[in-house]
Amino acid sequence: VYNAAPAWGVTVGDALAVPEPLLTQHHHQHQGQTFSFLGLRVSSPLSLVVNGKRPPGSALAPPRLALTNPGAAPP
């Protein structure tokens, strides 16, 4: 689950409801092999319903800020 906190997850046997899913067909070729699979994406783990309940706020991974300056000289 994208943007889920490392300590949160679902387990085998959990009932999972996915409101407003985005289903995407992926096709990739690599070293002569073709890989095809479906991807199911939701905007946030907080939009899921697991075993009849919404996940707690702690299920969402904290934001991270990464800065780069391509024009800067290396340290």
Automatic annotation (TrEMBL):
Q: What InterPro entries does the database record attribute to this sequence?
A: TTC5_OB, TTC5_OB_sf
Q: Which domain of life is it from?
A: Eukaryota
Q: Which Pfam families match?
A: TTC5_OB
Q: Where is this region: Disordered?
A: 53-75
Signal sequence span per UniProt?
none
Domain Tetratricopeptide repeat protein 5 OB fold residue range list: 1-61
| Protein name (database record) | TTC5 protein
Gene that encodes the chain: Ttc5
